[in-house]
């Protein structure tokens, strides 16, 4: 029974749900031509955003050092998802920007997330899933979703 569940089970169940969705997403992205993309890459590309970011900004957004952010940016560049470009506002700085391949994988991810949510709705029922989402929003911090999961986990 739910009331007999130990407290540690809740975060593990939440993480298991997250992991299930992430694993399914990455299996589908691999099938669609993005076999090297990893969950940390998705967080990094979201942190880079449409306007780009310096390595320092990326590190702050991800909760990792500038050096770790630079390594992630280098990996994304090697995979063709990002590129380092001159900052038009300051010639001394380099920006990390998403490439068309980066935008493509983000668009594909959004579509796959919609499919995965639909599968959860089919399994749980749309009303129950909407209530679950509302409950999680209630329990989430008011500041919203943060992208520093990799840094928070110590990666």
The chain-level structural class is mainly alpha
SSE topology string: HHHHEEHHH
| Low-confidence regions | none
Integer-rounded radius of gyration? 18 Å
Number of strands: 2
Q: Taking strands numbered 1, 2, ... along the chain, how are they ordered across the largest sheet?
A: 1-2
Strand content: 5-15%
User: Largest beta sheet, briefly?
Assistant: 2 strands, antiparallel
**What is the mean pLDDT?**
91
The shape is globular
Please characterize this protein's 3D structure:
This protein is mostly helical and about 160 residues long. It is built from seven helices and two strands, in the order ααααββααα. The chain has a two-stranded antiparallel sheet. Strand 1 and strand 2 form a beta hairpin. Helix 1 (about 10-30) packs across helix 5. The protein is globular. The model has no long low-confidence stretch (mean pLDDT about 90).
Question: How would you summarize what this structure contains?
Answer:
By secondary structure, the protein is mainly alpha-helical. Helices cover 63% and strands 10% of the residues.
Structure characteristics:
155 residues, mainly alpha, two-stranded antiparallel sheet, 7 helices, 63% helix, 10% strand, globular
